[in-house]
Amino acid sequence: MSQDIAVQVTDLSKNYGPVQALRGVDLSIAAGEYFVLLGPSGGGKTTLLRLLGGFIRPSAGRILLHGIDVSEQPPNHRPTSMVFQSFALFPHMNVAQNIGYGLRLRKLPKVEIDERVAAMLDLVGLGDLADRMPHALSGGQQQRVQLGRSLVLETDILLLDEPLAALDAKLRKDMCLELKHLQEQVGITFVHVTHNQEEAMTVADNMAIIADGELVETGTARDLYENPRRRFTADFIGETNIFDGTVTGVNNGEVAVDLGFAALTVDDNGQCPNVGTEVSVSIRSELVQILRSGIAVAADQQTLTANYGEAVYLGLATSHVAALPNGQAVVARHVSTGLALDVIAPGSSVELAWPRSMMRLHLS
Amino acid sequence: MGKALFLAPIVFMTLFFALPLALTVVWSVFERTMFWMEPGFTLFAYENFFFSARLENFLSSMWHSSISVVVAFIFGFPVAVFVRRRIPQVAQHRVILLFILPFMVSEIIRIFALRPVLQRTGLVNNVLLELGVITEPITVILYTPLGVIIGEVLSFLPFIVFAGFLAMEAVPKYIFEICDDLGAPRHRVFIDVILPLAAPGIFAGAVFIFVNGLGVALLPNILGGPGAVNAGLIATQAIAALDFPLAMAVSAIMMTTLLGLLYIGHRLFDLTRILSPIN
């Protein structure tokens, strides 16, 4: 796999009248990478994808695909192909005709079209459905046809706009893995838009969080889950407890943060906040333990005193909710063991404990 | 009560549509009397139609009507596509309303209003003479078969826009994005995608124009020359001559033509699709 840059976006903005759908996004995606644009609905991720595909023109900024400026080029002059949300097939053409239409437009000889369509039908697992009409296909099969229609063109970059959004949860999981394997097999760059975290984490080599028209953060799934730099990322991915406070001291790579009712010491993680800055500290809910008060804890644990609220059984996990002195709720989440619960009376005082080293500092 | 509600349209259609049409056929074989007709069986009216200049007139009005359909389609359908694709969704129906408005003016007024436009000293000729484009007035555009065709096109153009707009309902918006992505040139999008998907609606619009071109007697009467006749005018003239069986026979022949067209169309495109936009 080469280390070429497939997508290079600089200072890209898109306005719809007074609405800024995308603001000054810089992003680069390596060739052969499975890249995911993840974010809440209406955050601008689909706008970015459509800009890449050429369906809309940027208000400002540039788009380079494989080093060539395509900012003002129409979709068919770009090395991209798009998989749309759902049901985006030609309703009057069967599966093979849908897949082959792009090749027909390129005026390839019929024999070659038939060969490539047949190979593509096998690749996307529709070998025996070549003659089916779109309305007789399931949602998953329709999306496979779309994949085939795009991949058969052998473009360098495949754009996928919420390709699995219309599928039910179980099917989506299967299709996720399939997409991932398909990408590994064909080796081209995939840029995939989704609002679904699990989907994003399953398929992505790298991902970008996009919200409110801005690129929040990029990184691998593991980076963003375990070591988010931005408060938004910490809040958006996984289930995280976030405490807002003020920096009271910086010492030796450690930052002291005052929460008002307690003080925390957190690793600066390469960031250098000034004393007095408003910052946030986060800890993932699965790292928080709830202990009866009075139980001794190890020195590497951060503890806070709280009032126990309730337990919420969620199947795989059980969430325990406790309230800090300032009223903020803290969630501790643990895999349900199936053993009888050690019931804690609501309202009783408990100690929340977690490893100091697992806390993350967010300056913004 | 519930069932009765469903029966109501059936009763209505039978009483006021199917029954009169059936009676048309029955009366067309009745014997002609001085002022009316009496029960009997004779094919005299059909003989009168098929072995006279009437058949020729009927066929030529079918031909003129076909030309009108094609011309109206060429001018009208792109407008419908334009409205669907480029006008914002909320404004689309208002724009289409503009095309329906002409139908709220009486047909005879609409058609008659074309005379001062097309006649020898009419608007078209005056403007062209004034501009020096022509030196002699064009006389071929009124009181000629061409005049009838122009009249048909102008009076049915709004309808093909409306029908085309409905037909485009069957062409989902995403189709155009796929086509952009695949790099389909406009004419290929039109031939490969829009036409096949919109075919039922286009066909319905075309049949409407065709049948009206055959049937609206006012058109040849007002815009055609001395020899210009369509099926509607043949029937009207027969009624004026008190030859009711002949008028009935002409109606029956037109009806058969229409049913034949609808049958062919249904076999080709499944016309029920007009009313079921793709979801």
Topology:
The complex is a heterodimer of chains A (364) and B (279).
Chain A: E1 5-16, E2 19-30, E3 34-38, H1 45-53, E4 60-65, E5 68-69, E6 80-83, H2 95-105, H3 110-123, H4 139-151, E7 157-161, H5 169-186, E8 189-194, H6 197-203, E9 206-211, E10 214-219, H7 221-226, H8 231-236, E11 240-251, E12 254-258, E13 263-267, E14 278-284, E15 289-292, E16 301-313, E17 317-323, E18 329-335, E19 349-355, E20 360-362
Parallel strand pairs in A: 3-8, 3-9, 6-7, 7-8
Antiparallel strand pairs in A: 1-2, 1-4, 4-5, 9-10, 11-12, 11-14, 12-13, 14-20, 15-19, 16-17, 16-19, 17-18
Chain B: H1 2-28, E1 31-32, E2 37-38, H2 44-50, H3 53-86, H4 89-100, H5 107-112, H6 115-118, H7 123-131, H8 145-167, H9 174-182, H10 186-215, H11 218-223, H12 231-240, H13 244-269
Antiparallel strand pairs in B: 1-2
Helix pairs in contact in B: 1-13, 2-13, 3-8, 3-10, 8-10, 10-13, 12-13
Model description:
The complex is a heterodimer of chains A (364) and B (279). Chain A has 364 residues and is α+β, with helices and mostly antiparallel strands. Chain A is 23% helix and 37% strand. In chain A, the strands form 4 sheets. Chain A has a 6-stranded mixed β-sheet, sandwiched between helices. In chain A, helix 2 (95-105) packs across helix 3, helix 2 runs parallel beside helix 4 and helix 3 (110-123) packs across helix 4. The longest helix of chain A is centred in the middle third of the chain and has 18 residues, at 169-186. The mean pLDDT of chain A is 89. Chain B has 279 residues and is mainly alpha-helical. Chain B has one domain (56-275): MetI-like fold. Chain B contains 13 helices and 2 strands; from the N terminus they run αββαααααααααααα. A two-stranded antiparallel ribbon of chain B has the order 1-2. Chain A binds chain B through residues 53-55, 74-77, 80-82, 84, 87-88, 90-92, 101-102, 105-106, 149-150, 153, and chain B through 172, 174-175, 177-178, 180-185, 188, 192-193, 196-197, 278.
